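Sample entry (203 residues):
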Amino acid sequence: MDSPNRPPTPDSVHSWWSGSNSIGPTISIHAAAKPLMRLMYHRQVRSFIKRNQDTRLSPELMEICLSYLAYKYISPATKSLILAELDSRVTSGRDMEVVCNSLKQSAPLVSELLDSSRTRIRLHTWNILRAISPFDSLMSWVSVPQIFSAFSDADPEICEASRFAFIKCVRTSEGSDYFWGYVAGVSIRAEKLVNALDFVDGR
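Predicted structure, serialized as tokens:
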């Protein structure tokens, strides 16, 4: 299945009272088209996931996933569906390297997902980052303030996932160097770091 392509922009439907006939409303079908597009893409994604369930995730398949996640006509439910599949794959030990490499090249998209107002989107994204953090220094492409902000998320699962991702990251030499370099250059609330370390040490 190809990545989603924007369909032609539907023409506006003019009532008898619009345009040259008389002053009046122009009725656009955009409002009706967008929900139908979201439904169509949701069905495409479900079919795509089902068809590739037993297939190793290649860079090409991952690129399709990312194209859906970045597309503005994709609903939050569809994004959650994609992220849940990636979450399942990496937490079971599959496809971690290809997911890591692809997300690293899509840092703005990752940041957008972490800032989502939808809890499930944030949670699946943090679970993915938690799983792949040993492969790369997350803090070179996920902002440290964004990581610390997640420590106090209203959802306890997000708090846990973000803290574990942070600890696994700083235990790598690259992650440690990046973090302490960051700390040296900014003013940071020390209790946030202490809370993160205490959280993991308590486990």
